[in-house]
Amino acid sequence: MPIYEYKCNECGNVFSKLVFNQSAKIECPGCSSDNVDKLISAISSSSGGSGGPSGGCGSSGFS
User: Fold this and answer.
1) How far is residue 63's CA from residue 46's CA, in Å, rounded to a whole number?
2) Band of residue 2 on the pLDDT scale cut at 50, 70, 90
3) Dihedral sign, CA of 46, 39, 1, 17?
4) Which of 19, 21, 26, 23 minimizes the C-alpha distance to 2?
5) Residue 10: predicted pLDDT
6) What letter does residue 16 receive in the DSSP assignment?
7) Do the beta carbons of residue 51 and residue 44 sit within 8 Å?
8) 37, 35, 33, 34: which is closest to 6 by C-alpha?
9) What integer is the mean pLDDT of 4-27?
């Protein structure tokens, strides 16, 4: 079950929400408005994301 970040368009609150059902109505915990936008996350997964050692097989790319 994914955790998404949202920003409320009414009060500006940014919050995270564990989403069980994609069609569920998301409300701001600060003002209870449903006028929210899903934010794009900059977090990469630990299963093959770039930016660190992969620990996998093959050449490391160093000579």
Assistant:
1) 26
2) confident
3) positive
4) 19
5) 97
6) E
7) yes
8) 37
9) 94
Percent of the chain with pLDDT over 70: 62
Question: In sequence order, which residues have a C-beta less than 8 Å from that of residue 18 and are 6 or more positions away?
Answer: 1, 2, 3
Rounded Cα distance, 20 and 24, in Å:
8
25-53 burial by CB neighbour count: b if 16+ within 10 A, else e?
ebbbeeeeeeebeeeeeeeeeeeeeeeee
pTM exceeds 0.70 for this model: no
Confidence band of 59 (pLDDT split at 50, 70, 90): low
Among positive and negative, which fits the CA dihedral 30, 40, 51, 48?
positive
